[in-house]
Design a protein that fits this description.
Length: about 260
């Protein structure tokens, strides 16, 4: 098995939001896909793609691939310099037909997520998982991610590193961070925001607004905001390659800006 070609297959899958069988079909039929893969003599079938992803999880190679990609970004002069934006978004999954309070885990069926959980935001319910990401403010690249169940609150995940200024919305108010805290303030009972805090929030909001772009691209361009796999580990490896795909997509944007 050609590992490089398999990694390219997973990138294509997340770029185009394809299920495994459709990935096999398009990699066989589309000349653009075959060119990206290096015109291989044989295209892996969808079961091979599934087993390769599981193998990455078992060996931890998915994280090594991500770390190597980050190292290569650094060597290209794209290091984090000015600060980072941390945010999170829901990655939905199929809840099946069972009631929300029915036990999951090993009792779950194939089409019913084993690890997915329910969460509510702005009076709307979501089932599945949550992608937490850290994007650098200068280049707009995703520099770190973590995948959890949907019900885990954003504030429970800190992706910042020591020495980084981390811009976060009010959902992270009061949550500790390893970096320099630039979290928007939230009014509490008996303690409304004063004018200085409101102005600070506006400055942080403008700074962190570009952090929504990766999620817009992932969901609207890649169609990768919904998963069919059923465990946190399997969703996590998909999200690694989704972030990988976004960074490649955004690098092309950076290159066009430099040439303009």
């Amino acid at each position: 098995m050609d590992a490089v070609m398999m990694i390219k297959m997973l990138v294509l899958q997340q770029w185009y939001g394809l299920p495994d069988p459709e990935l096999e079909r398009q990699a066989t039929d589309r000349i653009s896909f075959r060119k990206f893969l290096g015109f291989p003599d044989n295209i892996p079938d969808f079961s091979t793609v599934w087993r390769f992803r599981d193998r990455l999880i078992e060996t931890g190679k998915d994280k090594e691939i991500w770390e190597e990609f980050q190292r290569q970004l650094d060597t290209q002069g794209l290091r984090v310099k000015k600060g980072v934006i941390q945010d999170a978004t829901f990655i939905t999954a199929d809840p099946g037909h069972a009631k929300a309070d029915k036990p999951r885990g090993d009792e779950a069926k194939t089409r019913r997520s084993k690890d997915g959980t329910w969460a509510k935001k702005n009076r709307k319910s979501y089932f599945g998982y949550k992608l937490h990401s850290k994007m650098d403010t200068e280049h707009g690249l995703i520099r770190d991610i973590k995948t959890t169940t949907a019900s885990l609150h954003d504030s429970q995940v800190d992706l910042s590193a020591e020495g980084e200024v981390v811009y976060r919305d009010k959902g992270y108010f009061g949550a500790p961070t390893k970096g320099y805290d630039a979290t928007m303030k939230r009014a509490t009972r008996g303690h409304p925001l004063n004018i200085r805090e409101e102005l600070r929030n506006k400055r942080i909001s403008r700074k962190r607004s570009p952090g929504e772009r990766p999620y817009a691209v992932i969901k609207s361009v890649f169609n990768s905001g919904h998963v069919r796999v059923t465990t946190v580990a399997r969703v996590a490896v998909k999200m690694i390659f989704t972030a990988f795909a976004f960074n490649l997509y955004h690098l092309a944007t950076i290159k066009r800006r430099e040439m303009a």
